[in-house]
Each structure stands twice: as structure tokens, then as C-alpha cells.
Predict the 3D structure of the following.
Amino acid sequence: MKRKQFELYRSSGTANNITVGVLASIGLICGAKSFTGTQISLVEYCFIPETLTSPDNRAKYCTQDLRYIMPESEFYAEAYAPANPSFQRDNFLPTKATRLRIIPPSNPNKPLWGLASVVTTGGAFALSKAREWRLMQLLPEVRNELKANWLISKLREGLRLHKESYTAQLDYEFHQWTENRRARAAQLSQMTPQELAIFQEQVRLKAEAEARAQLQQATGQPAGALPGQSMQDVARGDDKVTGGQQQALQHNSGESLHPSESLALNTLQALAKADSSTALVAAPGSGKSVTLNYLIEKILADCPSADIWVISAKNDSFCGLREKERVIVFDGENPDLAKDVIDNFYQSYKLRKQLPEQRRESLPPLILILDDWLVIADSLSKLYSDWNYGSKLLDVLLIGREFNTKFIASLQSFNLAALGIEKMDAQTRMCLNLLLLGNKYIKNSREQESYGVLELILNRGDIIPGKQSRELIKSKYLEVKAVSYQNFRPVMIASVGGFVVALMPNLSNQAKSISDAHEYLDRVYELEFNLNAAHPNHTKPLSEVARKIYEYFQNVKNKTPKTLRDLKKADRLSGYSDQELMNGLSELVESEKINYDGNDSYSLPDW
């Protein structure tokens, strides 16, 4: 409604402007007219002596410069009667004036012209102010209406996008359901009648267990033993999640302090899986060693065949790598071991660079961990002045991701030049993932803080570009720091594509929960779905990708050997990377479920 009034207001603008212009012009003309001419009659007079009779003598007393003009009403009034300016006593010049003529008024209507000017000019001004007043009334209402229309359009666009996204999600879930149904049908078609009977019985028992659990939750009554189970089986419970496992699977919910812990855990997992190098920067007491061990555990859990070497200033286990003789403790008196490790690591990397593209995809991770690298790098630079290890690290940093090669450097200072890479500019820094930690801890019965590294990065425009981005990260950091300060839990600022600020979870519990959860899920699968397993309680459970690959080999109609390229074309395996597929194949070969036929081909054994 207001929009229509505003449009009418705009359309009437030309007519209003013309009217105001015409009235203003008329007012100016009338005003000018009111200032011209005379309004009253005037008398022209002179002073002529009455004793002179000759016309010639009289004329000299009434020349042009001796003539005067005054209003007619004043000429005849005694109070305003004109006096001869040349009059002198004992002189013959007269004191009274002689009227020559009456000059009629040239503009007798001057007041009317003035009134007309005032009326027309006032009308023009009133119309102009009225239009201005109307505009000031309409603008807020039109502005609010425009805002409402804009918001409605945004909501409609958001609803449209949500509808498209929801439709796409439904299509995907339906496709996934169809594929799972087809895979289950194919799996059931391969079963013998005895296996089908066992499977149906297990499904029935599982459905009854779920129904009894829901009944117990709704009524609060204890659930009895399930059909087909004795009380000893129920009490034994070795095929169920224990209380400790359940707490681990729930991420130790009783100790949860901040919702960003899950974000921190996802970020650490992304760093472990990242194909680019990482700098772990933290002051003593910030949880650097625990975080580094968690990254190693995650890497080994995802790929047990990962080739990891460690150079450290302390003789730690590093998740069992020391027992595998993969940890080199740096000794300033005998630094050749550390130098040889870096040279051998770089030599292995150079060999990978010679491989063709099709063989790079199946390479296991090659990782060099540089712990307490600030001290070690300084010693190596002094001992081997002609040995430029920084160029090797720069090569791995920029190109290593193409060959599944990277390094993880643990530093106590934000001075990234300590890596030994001289050309650490802004572009080079973008290739390096950053993980910075800060914490409040107790040492020698005294509370100490180590947030300096985190607060330094918040003011670095070359690290976090954009003042607005730095302010947002700083605001989030202050919020998380308050929780960290009260509970002695580390704060993380990480750069994995974008910057993340979060509270670190309890990584020691997380490592146990990951192991227990995987073991429990594998056990459930073996009990309910993997009916071909001869001894499900005594064999190591397969990982998810290995199970998917094994199902693919079982359900495929063509029993010819398959390559990695064939697996990548399968729908059920489309979501896995080449490295995950290779790890699954290696796991199946080790468990003798498939055979390796050479030339990157695999097949089922002839049973």
C-alpha cells in the first residue's frame, strides 16, 4: 500500500514542480509590478510673483530647474503647504506656490500587486514544503516495506535452496538405500538355506531386543532375558558395550567442558589425514607431546603401513615407533644419525618422485617427525654449515603432497624460520598447516600459563589476513580461553584450509575410545552379518573399507582378477580414497581372504 502511495508521489512530482514554478514566476512578476510607478496624484508647481504681468518675466521664475513635485493631498494641506526656498523678507518673491499641473498616478493598484505577489509566492513555498513533508512521511514506511520485501525474498530463496538440498538428500538416501538393498539381496542370494535360517533368527532376536529396550525405557520396568538366551548369557555380556566403552564412545561426556571439543577432535583427525606438512607450535606445558602422539596414533590407525621416522631430543616411545627402531634421539656429540635419517628420508622421497602417476596413488604415507626441532635445527646448522637440510624440507613442503610425503615439525617458538626454510614467505606458509596450543598448567606447585604463542598469531596480518577475520578469531579465542583457564585444558588454533579455534579434548581417553569403538563395531558385524567367518571371536575384525571390498569381490558376477581401477568404479567403494582402498586390500591379503596375483590385481581364493 505504501509502495503505491510512493509511486503516486513520484508520478505527481512533475505537475507539482510545474505548479510551484508557475506560482513563483507569477509572484516575482507581481512583486516587480508592485515596486514600479506611483500610486497617488502629484502636483507640479513653481513660485511666480503675482506683481509680474509680463509672460516673459513670469517664465524665468518657472524654469525646469525651479519646478517641484509633491503629493496632491499635501499640496492643499496647510501643514504641508510648500514654501519658497528662495523666499527672503523685503523681497518681492512670493511665499505661495503656483500650481502648474496635476500628474495622475501611473500605478494606482500597487497594493493589489503586492498582495498578489505575497499570495502566489507563499503558495509556491507552501506546495514545496508540503511535498517535502509528504516525502519525509513516506520514506520510513517505504524503507520498512522495502526491508520486509527484501527479507521475504531472502527467505523464499533460502527455502528454495533448502528444498533443493532436501530433495537432493532424499534422492541420495533413496539411492543409498536401494544400493544397500541390492547388496543385501545379493548377499542373501549367496547364502545357503541353513545360513539364511541362522540370519533370520539373528534378525528376529535383534528386533525383539530393541522392542524390549524401548518397552523398558517407556515403562521403567526391567527387561527380561531375550528369547534364545540364558540368564548366564545375559549376565555375561561380553558381546555388549560395557559402561567404560559406552563412556568412551560418548567422548567421556561427564567431563565435557565445551561444545568445541568435537571440532578440535575433527580438526586433529583432518591434520592426521592431511597430505601437506604441519607445524605444531606450543610452549612447554601446552600439551604438545600428547597432541603429537595422538596424531601418530591416528595416522597408524588409518594406515598401519605408514613409514614414519622420528628425530627427537628425548627418548619417548612415540606410539611404539621407538620399539620399531624408528626413533632417533639427537645427540649433539654424535649428530650423524639425525643427519642420516633426514638424508635417507629425502632419498626415499626422491625415489617416489621417479614413479609414474598410476603408482603414486597406492603409496603409503612417508612421514618425518621433527620433535623439539628448534634446538635440533640450531645444532645441525652449526655442525653442518655446508649441508642445507632446509632445501630438502622446502621440497617436501611444496611438492611432497603429490607423493604422500610430509613432515610434522614440533616447535616451541612461532619463529617458523627455525624450520631451516629460508624462503618462508606468505605464499610458502600457505602450504604449511599450523597447529598452535596454549594452556594453563601447574608446575612445582605453581600455576603457569603458555598462551603467548596463540596471542601472538592473533596480531599477525601475514598469518591471518583481514582485520575482521582476526577480530572474529580473537573473540572466539577469548571465549575458549576462559574455559581453558578455569579447567587447565589446552586451547587450539589450527589452520587446515581455514582457521579453527577450539578447546582440546582429553586425547588419552579419545585414543582408547577410538580403539574400543572400532573393536565393538567390528565384533557386532562379525556376529550379525559376516556369516562366513569361521571363528568370529578369535580373528582380528576387518576394517570397514576391507569389509566393503570383500563384499564387492563376493557379489561381483565376473570372478576375474580385479585392479584398483575396478574397485574405484564400484558404487559402494566410490567414497574411499586410493590409499584407503590399498590399505583395505592389504588387510584382506594379510587375512588370506583374497589373493594378490601381481601386476596390481587381486582375486578371491579358489575354495
Observations:
- The longest helix spans residues 110-189.
- The longest strand covers residues 405-411.
- Residues 2-31+110-186 form one domain.
